[in-house]
Write a structure and sequence with these properties.
Number of helices: 2
Protein name: Blue (type 1) copper domain-containing protein
Shape: globular
Strand content: 25-35%
Pfam family, one: Copper-bind
Largest sheet: 5 strands, mixed
InterPro entries: BlueCu_1, Cu-binding_ET, Cupredoxin
GO molecular function: copper ion binding; electron transfer activity
Radius of gyration: 15 Å
CATH architecture: Sandwich
CATH superfamily: Cupredoxins -  blue copper proteins
Distance between the termini: 49 Å
Keywords: Copper, Metal-binding, Signal
Order of helices and strands: HEEEEEEHEEEE
Number of strands: 10
CATH topology: Immunoglobulin-like
Strand order of the largest sheet: 1-8-5-2-3
CATH class: Mainly Beta
Helix content: 10-25%
Structural class: alpha+beta
């Protein structure tokens, strides 16, 4: 149980942004959206290493509210970023786990996560964030908790007219 609590704490610290570990800089695929301008609500269920959403079609400039339900036993995140941004975020998540094992942290704030293209959700919980999309190549949604992305917890974001 102690390991599980420590692991959850590490992951909470690591859930910063796919674009940057130290600031709430939005990824290149858009920016936090205005809740009053939401045109669509997308419900996503997360279980162990899978999302109910396999791919996402959006329009350039569209504002979407994501509602992430965690029906699994592990924490999950849903982040938006390019393939390269997600690769960097996965490295940061791994580094955060190593720092936590050594008793440190990197000052990440969960409050910054929605500002940076994502949301964290603990088992049995639901979390939301609003995002306005900007046409970007190689954009995807993903869970970057170590091992989850590699096991297929990701999907493409395609821009349609």
């Amino acid at each position: 149980m102690l390991f599980r609590r420590s692991f959850v704490g590490v992951l909470a610290l690591a859930a910063a942004t796919p674009a940057s570990a130290h600031s709430p800089t939005p990824p290149s695929g858009g920016r936090p959206g205005d809740p009053a301008k939401v045109t669509r609500v997308i419900n996503v269920v997360a279980i162990e290493n899978a999302f109910s959403l396999k791919a996402l079609d959006v329009r350039d400039g569209e504002t979407v509210r994501f509602v992430l339900h965690n029906d699994g036993v592990d924490p999950h995140e849903l982040t938006i970023g390019t393939v390269a941004e997600h690769a960097e975020h996965r490295k940061q998540m791994k580094e955060m786990m190593e720092l936590q094992k050594k008793g440190g942290h990197a000052g990440h704030s969960m409050a910054d996560m929605a500002q940076s293209g994502g949301v964290w959700v603990d088992p049995g919980k639901t979390a939301t964030f609003v995002w306005t999309f900007k046409r970007t190549a190689d954009l995807e949604f993903a869970c970057n908790i170590p091992g989850h992305y590699e096991d297929g917890m990701k999907g493409p974001i395609r821009f349609v007219k």
